[in-house]
Amino acid sequence: MTYDRCRALWPDKVFWANLNLALYDLPRQPLRQAVLDRCQRAGRRGLAFEISEDLPRNWKTAVPVILEALA
């Protein structure tokens, strides 16, 4: 389900989602933009990310980019 569809169905809920592992391989700026896009599409109510698949091999460099985008 897309974030847009979820927000239409559940306008009062906070979303808890993961980032596809392929996103972690993106360069810094496209990864940051992917996070910002998801936040915007999730709406003002809120969004939480988790790593629910395998830990990305480059998590030490990718996770700080994600956290910076969320700040």
Description:
The protein has 71 residues and is mainly alpha-helical. It is 48% helix and 11% strand. It has helices at residues 3-9, 28-42, 59-70; strands at 15-18, 47-50. It has a two-stranded parallel ribbon. Helix 2 (28-42) packs across helix 3 (59-70). The longest helix is centred in the middle third of the chain and has 15 residues, at 28-42.
Helix fraction by DSSP (H/I, runs of at least 4): 40-55%
Oligomer: single chain
The rough form would be described as: elongated
Distance between the termini: 26 Å
How do the SSEs run, as a string of H and E? HEHEH
SS field, number of helical segments: 3
Range of strand content: 5-15%
Strand order of the largest sheet: 1-2
Low-pLDDT runs of 5+ residues are none
Number of strands: 2
Radius of gyration: 12 Å
- The pLDDT mean sits at 90
SS class: mainly alpha
Summarize the main sheet: 2 strands, parallel
